[in-house]
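Section 4.2 – Deliverable D4.2 (structural model, holo form)

The reporting period included a commitment to supply a predicted holo structure for the target in complex with magnesium ion. Inputs used:
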Amino acid sequence: MSELQLVQILSPEGELLTDPEYPLEISTEEIRALYRDLVMVRRFDVEATALQRQGELGLWAQSLGQEAAQVGSGRALIPGDYAFPTYREHGVAWAKGVPPEKLLGMYRGINHGGWNPHDNDFHLYTLVIGSQTLHATGYAMGIQRDKSNNAVIAYFGDGATSQGDVNEAFTFASVYHAPVVFFCQNNQWAISQPIESQTKVALYKRAAGFGFPGVRVDGNDVLAVLAVTRVALARARAGEGPTLIEAFTYRMGAHTTSDDPSRYRLAQELEEWKLKDPIARVKSYLTRSGLANEDFFADIEKEAEAMASKLRGDIIDAEDPYVEAIFDHVYAEPHPILEAEKNAYINYLESFAEGDMK
Amino acid sequence: MSELQLVQILSPEGELLTDPEYPLEISTEEIRALYRDLVMVRRFDVEATALQRQGELGLWAQSLGQEAAQVGSGRALIPGDYAFPTYREHGVAWAKGVPPEKLLGMYRGINHGGWNPHDNDFHLYTLVIGSQTLHATGYAMGIQRDKSNNAVIAYFGDGATSQGDVNEAFTFASVYHAPVVFFCQNNQWAISQPIESQTKVALYKRAAGFGFPGVRVDGNDVLAVLAVTRVALARARAGEGPTLIEAFTYRMGAHTTSDDPSRYRLAQELEEWKLKDPIARVKSYLTRSGLANEDFFADIEKEAEAMASKLRGDIIDAEDPYVEAIFDHVYAEPHPILEAEKNAYINYLESFAEGDMK
Amino acid sequence: MITIGKAINMGLRRALTEDPKVLVMGEDVGKLGGVFRVTENLQSEFGEDRIIDTPLAESGILGTAIGLALRGYRPVCEIQFDGFVYPAFDQITSQLAKMHSRSLGTLKLPVVVRIPYGGGIGAVEHHSESNETYFAHTAGLRVVTCSNPNDAYWMIQQAIQSDDPVIFFEPKRRYWDKAEIDEAAPSLGLHETRTVQEGNDLTLISYGPTVRTAIEVAAVCAKEGRSVEVMDLRTLSPLDLAPVFESAQKTGRVVILHEAPTFLGLGAEIASQITEECFYSLDAPVLRVGGFNVPYPPARLEEHYLPDLDRTLDAIDRAFAF
Amino acid sequence: MITIGKAINMGLRRALTEDPKVLVMGEDVGKLGGVFRVTENLQSEFGEDRIIDTPLAESGILGTAIGLALRGYRPVCEIQFDGFVYPAFDQITSQLAKMHSRSLGTLKLPVVVRIPYGGGIGAVEHHSESNETYFAHTAGLRVVTCSNPNDAYWMIQQAIQSDDPVIFFEPKRRYWDKAEIDEAAPSLGLHETRTVQEGNDLTLISYGPTVRTAIEVAAVCAKEGRSVEVMDLRTLSPLDLAPVFESAQKTGRVVILHEAPTFLGLGAEIASQITEECFYSLDAPVLRVGGFNVPYPPARLEEHYLPDLDRTLDAIDRAFAF
Ligand SMILES: Cc1ncc(C[n+]2csc(CCOP(=O)(O)OP(=O)(O)O)c2C)c(N)n1
Ligand SMILES: Cc1ncc(C[n+]2csc(CCOP(=O)(O)OP(=O)(O)O)c2C)c(N)n1
Ligand SMILES: [Mg+2]
Ligand SMILES: [Mg+2]
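Output (structure tokens):
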């Protein structure tokens, strides 16, 4: 495969191709479901962005443009497969069934992670670049020891590949044959740094030097991502060790709502990527193959609007954390000193309430 | 090149081969000089080991068996090329002209590094595995900025390749095209861990995934190491970026004098590697080609003995550090607090001398 | 009137202009000018060879900076946020801090590590930490912080001129605080504590982002008839405590205010030293006001976490109650 | 009579036997049994899946241990020497310490990090550090250390049983100290300070390797007619200071002895707290005896660096001189 080739099953124009290495058995219903996922995830992201602009969130990291990479890989997971996300994997969370409003908690500043990872086998968002790849590898080592038939998927960005931790994860996973899939969304940018400032060679090639396969997939092609991820997960479950998937995609939005990409990249680039939009191509495939009609699309739009408006309501109604939360849960076991610190602070606060303040 | 192939110019039996990719122009005098280097370095190492056994050193890390990798690469350097060693590169230090007794200081416990690196363009020994690969890369970035025509060589072990730092060094060197050669002595062991616990694939292959060439050389073949390192250094100087050299060799001694390899490896393995001894093959080549006679060998032995006995004298005579050394040089700029701490301690010590002690 | 952020930018520009060996490196420091714009426009002025956008790897940044320093350069590394310095911790503690002494004084490591630190900007996790203890406890490093634009402008230059490694903490929630700067000459050396305002009844010691809080506290106290001496440490390692001891001997009561958790925070060291030096002058134990001993909480709780005017006044009341 | 090293080995074996979720991991912990043989014979007994030889990467060790803990395991990580824990510092401070609170209590991180620490064995650089401050200052971690075989045996088991991450410091120069151990039941909980011997004139606080020194100091003082109460902290975070305050109130004089540099060493925190709690009881400021504020020196100077009997006696003299 040449440097620029990537696994593709659905062309940007919506034509269905086949890749002999990655045969995909998929029903029309499944493709329609994937389309729905993509639309819902985008709508979710649009709403969250709006909520940030309106001051309801302190920050938001958009998944715009990366929906296919996230939904395709997320839908390849079977129950019990565990996902370790960065801070941007809203589409994977969706596929894993995490209630959407929960994803907003940390961005609103009410918690540092608002769901129980074991509920949906979806770990908390991790902000320290690359760290979670080691957690994923360790978790996979646990799966091995449990002799369970599951696998783990670790998400990270193109920038993250420069971190020592990610490369250490490659080594540990390789030498232990850990059942983990390394899923790198190469969205071409790490804040203002283009991919060239992290590597001179295609990222998927990194894997070979650590002794496991790497593959580059069209990250805007939900079918190709699904197919490639399924194969990698199957390998992992079969005890054949890790795979690195490089999903070639594009960060269509800013890095986060705090960022201003006009300072470092040309609008032209975005325009080009719009032609490869991950949703448009599925729609065009469904339409031109007569697998879906206007009603289908309209229904999904309606559903998406409903989800968005519920999300908005949920988050505006979200309760602020209680003060004691500062101290609770720092330790699992009793901790007399923090207990005392908490009580002292609560008493101090109450002294104001009682009008004791000078 | 297959997994097991490696660049070789002098077979274990002492036959001269040629490798079209790595032509070596070398005079008989130079080969004889290399032979001398190898013998001197081994003799040095043997003496240091003996000094440790006799309590003159607290610890020693033997280079036994790795002389060709070290001398071959060290002799490929030209003046101004800078070397960043681990704690075992006695042969490179020799090639760089560092006075041998200086290498013993830290092992004797009189300092943490007893030479001025700028005197011989040979950095201090670094004990934290992998760290120095980043220093080497940074130094090479400096060379680039100086528009100087030199290169840097970074030494590290097979175990070190698992460290994040080493992989980060690969990334930095690659994206900046830094003039640095990464020289990995794969001596098959990291203390008790065999190479298989660090990687499932030949180490030289790591480079490709970072966008630069990797090559495996017979680390016990001083001519091949010289040839391969020269090519890599030339590439670096020509602005073509880094190269990873994996010198395939063997740690014939213990990890250090504190180690007991009988706990984790079979004596048989050592016996097999003895047949590939880096010195024997040069001797056999020189002998069978009639390029050296008994006198030549005897002279070198004599010279080596003299060096060893001088070394022994030097180290036994080495002065212990003065107490103030604890405080001096912690900072380059004045530091009133340490100054006060030093004075207080000196006064305290003097109080004993004056018999003030209760 | 210049902001602290801009003052550092100006200080960097001046250092880059005066010494061609000075480099700036870090993630997004080039075109973007850093996430806080502290390095804004430097790359267009000094080029990509001097304002170096790095790969996303903090150990890599510090490790290569050390190599550049060994080659005679003076790198100024930007760590994007306080909580992201830890991947570089090994390079900082085992290499940067120790290499000069390891070399018996032959190698100089004039590396500056700029860290925007502290909370108060409503950020997500890892973006609000005050982790100065880790560095101040590490021999071989110098640690400083600024609380106003003039210090910001001069201290960054002095840090760059130092032949020792300097950890330079920037009070991020004060980046936008404005004041005049005097471009003619610095008023103090890098390692000098400043008496911000004199007072007789109590000494209030602070540094970085909480100096402004301390000044506000003193104003409230003044209205209550308590005369508070406010000190801005500026230098955390080495500490410059002579003026602090003098003040403590005068006032007999000391409160130390910082954002970092109190447990092994700088306050602990300072309190111990004051007590040892001024034992007979103290009318009350030295009291500490700091962050709680917990991970920095989510943004919607940070006003509780951050030691503020009221908590400091409360401590002052307690000091007077002894 | 059992050595400290052997006692930890026995404690590990018992924990491994009693709970199949307990794992041991690190560099050379398998066949070699660790460079100090603390994990000797465990791999042959419990297999390679439970006694895991890792690649040479400390961040990797801690990061995968966290993943294993998330999956329900209880990994005990060995860091080969104190000075090699820093590559794992990010995983420890930003992940291990914070993940439980990040998850609002839903995730448990029962990871133990064993660190042989301190000097006195004539080692080369990075092999003799006392870096407990870094961890004790980090909320979310528990930090303990043992000073004798019985504590070693029990505390390692208690650390493994804790649902919180525990940094377990092992006093390497005392690995070969011998004493009886009581395999029936522990005498104290993991987070309890022990009064080693009672006294009335001065309280001498220590932990880990210098507890033995403290006992020797007390013996010398006894001959001089000074009755010294010796306390072994055992737990560095959380501190258990109630018995210390009580003692200080009784004696009025306190000296703290540890190997770590005094600047922001544990002594600073303890001194500050004692002064605050026992202000009116103190006849002298709490004095600290510790390592100098320098990188750990070469072996031939370590006897000067290490706070010993004489330096402690000197501090005690100074305490009595107030
Ligand atoms: C260790 C660390 N250093 C720096 C940062 C600041 N930071 C946040 S996101 C980011 C860029 C990440 O780029 P990439 O890995 O490509 O992921 P993307 O944001 O594109 O999804 C940086 C530098 C961080 N979060 N963690
Ligand atoms: C960061 C770090 N971790 C652990 C150690 C302890 N240690 C010293 S040497 C060594 C093995 C090194 O193996 P390798 O890189 O193959 O080099 P070799 O000793 O074989 O030359 C280890 C684990 C260390 N020095 N630094
Ligand atoms: Mg990216
Ligand atoms: Mg090796």
